[in-house]
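From the shared-data thread, chain only:
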Amino acid sequence: MNNNRDSLDFSKEPVGRLFRKMFLPTLIGMVSMVVLNITDGAFVGHGVGSDALAAVNIVAPLYMIVSGIGLMFGIGGSVVASIHLSKGNVKAANINLTQSVMASVAVGIVLGALVFMFQRETCLLFGCSEALIPLACSYIKWVALLTPFNMFGMTGMFMVRLDGNPKFAMGVNCGIAALNILLDYLLVFPMQMGLEGAAIATLTAFGSGCIPLAWFLLTRTKTVHFRRIKASRTSVALTARNLGYQMKIGASGLLGELALSSTIIVGNYVFIHYLGEDGVAAFSVGCYCLPIVFMIGNAIVQSVQPIISFAHGMNDDARLASARRIAFGTAAITGIVGMLSIWFGAGIIAVTFMEPGCHAYELCRDGLPYYSPAFLFIAVNVVMTGYLQSVEEARKAMVFTALRGFLFSIPCFIILPMVVGDYGAWLALPLAEAMTTAVMAWRLYG
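Structure, as tokens:
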């Protein structure tokens, strides 16, 4: 079956070649987001100060909740659509994709409105101290306005890649990153708008990125298209059923982001308790680095997902096994490189975000090596979970995600500092992720 998507044939083309065609542009797009994330943190740290970095880390869980909802609808819709396409049912694929995009944007509007109305309460819920409330609130209100645009961007990118156009998705991501970095510099330094300026830069860049994405999805796709959703009782019932199944497939993506956000929230409480606001600022640098491995892991998942779902839909076990080997191998290499980079580059990373000599800088420089093994296990865990989603093993994916995010990480954050001292807070996430990898490997291959 040749689906005529930029010469990508998900049913017959060699798996390794398909993966490279999907992965390289997806990786470049994700790396541009990583560069944006690091640059944004560096501008905030040097242009506003360590308290501003701590405030951003307080708000970070909101980003992750939004990303989780976007992943839930994006992965769920894409997996279901891929299986329909593998069977030649293009209409059903397009209906599911349209429903996933519309639902994610609607949820984004509601969530953004609630956070905007309850800014202070949200910040306190995320572990903010009274001293950081003004900074955190000045940032979170713009993040709330960004929420619907983020939802559309995430689910829309899944549509673009499923249509066989990863290069366009890469271009949009790179454009967003370049504009965000330029506006970050202008608003934080020459215009002296502080943390609020950084937030406005992000809102403007991501909002602008939705324009070419919407244009492409409405006018330039080859196979996947938006379809009008009818308002009849039968259509509403079918939409609810489809969305329910999509959410079931993609729920571990949401659960994973919720788990990470809860980890950061608990981490904020623990670091403030043991090391004060400077500790949260140091921890925020580690959290700025986390998206590197998460984005690369998600790039692997989003690149291999159509291949795996097509093979699963066609019951082609040989292609399925080949795609699994490539995905897990790439994840392991990525994780090892990430771990070694954080371990040996801790001092360089710390000085990127903070002025040398301050207490937060010293805590960060000394703590990051303890934190670095998390990057290896996170990469593997993200890809393992993505594989389970792609073959409709939603329940297993959710169980493993709950293990890493709640049952392992929260007790580790609470117990390790009491057992091994302050550095136990840095070791909590690596230990939780390692335990999850061991359990997943045992259940999948034992």
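Residues 233-314 form the longest helix (82 residues).
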